Amino acid sequence: MNPLPTASITAAGPTTFCAGGSVVLNANTGTGLTYQWKKYANNIVSAVNASYTAAVAGKYKCVVTNANGCSKGSNAITVSVPCRVGEFDQGQFKIYPIPSTGMITVEERTDALFPEIFEILDLNGKIVLTQILWGHSTAIKVDHLAPGMYIGHLKNNTSGNKIKIVLQ
After folding, report:
1. Is the bond preceding residue 97 a cis peptide, omega within 30 degrees?
2. Cβ neighbours of residue 16 closer than 8 Å, sequence gap 6 or more
3. What angle do CA 134, 139, 144 make, to 5 degrees?
4. Omega of the bond prior to 5 within 30 degrees of 0, cis?
5. What percent of the chain has pLDDT above 70?
6. Structural domains in the chain?
7. pLDDT value for 88
8. Are 17 and 23 in contact (CB under 8 A)?
9. How far apart are the C-alpha atoms of 14 and 103, rounded to whole Å?
10. 3-state secondary structure string, 154-165?
């Protein structure tokens, strides 16, 4: 009888992200070990290294085989991709594309009598961009902002609405 190898995986970052994101999964390493990554129970073609970059939702495992030919399956890591690609429709206004790489469009659904203010805030609540909206549809350049999650805030004289924005 030969001993089974150690088989464990860890995530090198958050396992929940929006479409277009990814996380690197790492298996334990050692001399003479080989790897086969799986999504659910299915082998991932050509995923035979100690690390695998997961970009789609699923439950990932790695089968580690030692030089004696003995194999063991690792723990599972679940990757979630809950954010929609395309647009975010809040009811009174719509923002697209989400995620964005340089430009977003804000479309208002109401005929505002006064100009409205659209702000982008970082996750600490700091305003990083302010844009006055005068019409039904306004394109806003965001390529100077770092990739990540932000909060979009549409304000008028009587109310305010907030939504999540993802920049890549």
Report:
1. yes
2. 79, 80, 81, 82
3. 120
4. no
5. 83
6. 9-79 (2.60.40.10), 86-167 (2.60.40.3080)
7. 47
8. yes
9. 25
10. EECCCCEEEEEE
| Strand boundaries in the chain, DSSP class E | 9-11, 23-27, 34-39, 42-43, 51-54, 58-65, 71-73, 77-79, 86-89, 93-98, 103-108, 116-121, 127-133, 137-141, 148-155, 160-167
Neighbours of 17 (CB within 10 A): 21
At 39, list the tokens.
């999504």
For 12, the token pair is: 């090198």
CA-wise closest residue to 85 among 74, 93, 95, 76: 95
Chain centre to alpha carbon of residue 44: 21
Report the run of H or E that residue 22 belongs to, with start and end: none
Specify the range with the lowest mean pLDDT, choosing from 56-60, 71-75, 134-138: 134-138
Backbone angles phi, psi at 99, to 5 degrees: -75, 160
